[in-house]
Please model this.
Amino acid sequence: MKPLVTLLVTLCLAVPASAAPPHHMPVVVQSDRIQIGYEFVPRYLDLPQVLVVPAGKTVTASPDSTWDYIEVAGTLRIARDRDTVLRFTHLFVLPGGVLDAGTQADPIPAGRRVELVVRDVPIDTARDPFQWGNGLLNFSKQTRVGAAKTAWTMATGDIAAGATALTLAADPRGWQVGDELLLPDSRQTKLPASPRRESPVTIAAIDGRTVTLSKPLDFEHLVIRDPDGGVVLLPRVANLTRNIVIRSETLSPETGTPGHTADIGEHATWDVRYNELAGLGRTRGIPLDNALLATKHVGTNQAGRYNDHHHHAQGFGSFTIGNVNRGNGRVKWGVVVHGTHDARIEDTITVGFPGAGFVTEDGYETRNVFRHNFAAYSIGNHKGDTNIETANARRDNNPGAAGNGFWARGVTNTFEANEAWNNSSGFNMFNQDTLPGNYPSVPGGDHDKVFNKFLALPVRFADNVTAANLVTGLEYWGVARYPTLNQTSAFNGIAQFFQGISESIHPFLVNPTLVCDRGTGWGVHSDRSYVPKLDIEGGGRIVGCAEGLHGSAEQVRIVGTLFQNVIDVNLTNMPSVSSYQENVMHKPLPGHPPVYIVLGDDRAWPGGAQMPAAGASQWVNQRGSQHRVKNWQGTGQDYRLFTLQQLASTAAWPSTDVYPHMFNAPDAGMTMGEAWAKYGIAYRGEALNDAEAVKLEGLVRGLAHPGLDAPLGPPRGVVTLPNSREPARIDKGTVKVYATMTGDPKAASDVLMVSVDGGKPFFVNPPPDGYRDIRTFTTSNIAPGGHEIRTWRTDANRRPIDASLMTFHYSVGVATESQPSKPQR
Model:
């Protein structure tokens, strides 16, 4: 029987729950429980084996002891001069208490081992309905600092299958014989396949940077190379052994009751370094099911019971460094930063957490630093559906369950030099469905700032690596423009960079290295419907893929990037996209013909009664070609690019009131060249004279014309609908008029002046959003017969420009009410 310390204490925080600012986590110690916001955890002082460390006292743990309940109001210390095994069902560090299991100045030395074991005891849900117990809860301060060691490094080259030794690229500080190693798979594999994983392998001997292994390796671990054989990424080698271990007594994913750990409340801080956390956590990657006291519902999948959980803690001055987190195959998340700010998470490893390795949970987590961490083998419920993240969060009440190395719902943090290998997806910046909350405007301050996801940007995102993940390397959801610096994404199964379907986004990749294996997968995928702008710049490369750029954005800008893929930039069926390329170099992928830019398709409308199919208007923004290339292939030559539809000899599409053809050419029977000469209007903003067309190597389904600037005419406002070809449509006693601004935009204001049937002139301003070069207005001039619309433009001083005056006509038959066939712009 272990001794029972009988001194009991009752402590309360200075800030009562009613006065707590939003998203502080008030913690109040009562006689029978610890209140955690609106939840609570019992104080188990009546259990048989209880150790209470009173305030002002220091107790050193016995070398080998077992407790039902440990409550620390003073200091519970772990000895440095001997091994310690401390078993418990519940270990709570109360406000003012300290758990001292090594400090930076006085760590647990390398020759000693400390085990903190959460016993396999069923949860008493009648007493603990929120299931906070059965684990280590820190409401104050804990330091658990073990012997320092290099968390992970890389090999110097290819490692063959069957190899029994390897050479490291850096000194393995602190590595010892018997330490377990992790060598991730470097193949490009996609679902439904899975990444290979070595059976357990340990260190048999160490000689400098040469490590002898306990067994021959099961498979090869090759260098990831670009199409020309250059080294992109060397094989990684991680050390999974630490001399402080906190673990569940049961490591089975199917049986028993695992423990969990959490730092809770605004006064909780931690310094946890070189620990191994194993088999911890109870929240699974299935829909959440929390306790409801009002209905006496017992939660079957309580949220927030994770492996390493920082729950509404201050974070400032707290550290998670050099740790190893081993998933039990069941708990969803590894290292979880939840409503916590200004903490540092560095050199830490997560392995085998189905949902995600590293998590910022709600969205408003701020200024935390994630640096040089390593996440591997998080697979989750991803089946290749690229919308799985939103389905999990919105439909299934199971956010962050797809299998990400890093799942950052809170993006306003620093992410630097982290790596993710062999997960479903490597790194997901999921700025979606964020929860409302306040955060401190300064480190350690009050929660005085309201979080706004539309303004949420990372402090820094640089030098991260995502490799050999099954679906995507780096994903963005709802993130505005910020520089993604030096991203390396290589050999990920479907896409190296993927932009999800979400609110307006502006990906900005600076010096990216995106590499696929032998012409498979995509370098960059984004959806034009959801992405206003896409920027790539800074001397990077996108190589080895089936398509370097798949999908697009409304505006694409690529500067100083090397492409070497089966197809480099694929704009097939993307005629409404505008693109600008400067100092971009293209190389053919070995074994494939040069296909550098695919522009549009081979079809050109032949004329006739049947209008071409189009999903949106192709006749807005009449400012010249929407595709420009500066310094093509390093030749110093600049070009505008055109589709075959833009040749002057092709038929011009006449305007009709059938969506989306309202902004086409006003007259029927015109060629594209005639419409351009008469109105300054053409498909995609400019017509190309057939005799001046230039063919460029690798430009497929497109033609070029020298020069970046189009020869724009005088500014005009062209009424495209209604016209004299068919009676105007009358709707609620008015005619809707469609017009587009053409000519040199620098020579005029953006105001369109209009007079109908000689009436009083009025002006039409740009629409508040959308395309600024289109104008719509209504007129009540609907008497049967012909009508006249006069338009003109004004200069910056609102004076009429003579060359802009134009006259258009429309006719009205019997005035009948009707509706357009589709919603119109």
Remarks:
- The first strand starts at residue 27 and ends at 29.
- DSSP finds two helices and 68 strands in the chain.
